[in-house]
Design brief:
With 171 residues, this protein is of the alpha/beta class. Helices cover 15% and strands 32% of the residues. It is globular and about 60 Å long.
Length: 171
């Protein structure tokens, strides 16, 4: 267990552009270069995270990624003649603070996801997502704005119990 933790720490600090406080990546983790990835404090990526960082990927603080999240900055032309030339482009992806990407989410090149956003499991994010949004689907679309009232619920219409609410209400 100790050796596995050492391997993760070495892998994590050696692949990302800057060291961050509280960052944790559950292996396996896949990337092209690693040097084009920048994450904020308390970053968490669950199993099978893939970041194709041909261009810069910037991820804010307190972001969580469920298993099998993929972020792509690389792409190829749509016309077969141009694509067959082996041309590859890279367009940066940015993700704000306090973002949760659900399992099997795919983020394509050029997308900007705002802060305080939840992306539902299985979504394919092809367009920018504004702050304080819940977005789902393929293609991913905003289904609701996150409001102060949402703070009292942990899942859909299920409210926190009194003990948990005492901890959460003033955060």
């Amino acid at each position: 267990m100790h050796k596995e933790k050492e391997k993760r720490e070495k892998h994590k600090s050696g692949r990302t552009k800057k060291k961050t406080d509280g960052a944790f990546v559950n292996p396996p983790f896949y990337c092209d270069y690693g040097k084009n990835i920048e994450v904020g404090k308390n970053f968490f990526a669950n199993y099978n995270c893939m970041i194709i960082d041909v261009a810069k990927v910037t991820i804010g603080e307190n972001c969580m990624m469920a298993p099998n999240v993929a972020i792509y900055t690389a792409g190829h032309p749509i016309h077969p003649a141009a694509r067959n030339s082996a041309y590859e482009y890279g367009i940066e992806v940015t993700i704000g603070d306090n973002v949760w990407l659900g399992g099997n989410t795919v983020v394509v090149p050029g997308v900007h996801i705002g802060s305080n956003v939840v992306i539902g499991a299985g979504s394919v994010v092809t367009k920018d997502i504004p702050d304080w949004s819940v977005a789902v689907g393929n293609p991913c679309r905003v289904v609701k704005k996150i409001t102060e009232e949402d703070k009292q619920y942990y899942f859909k219409d299920r409210k926190f119990d009194d003990e948990a609410w005492e901890v959460i209400k003033d955060l």
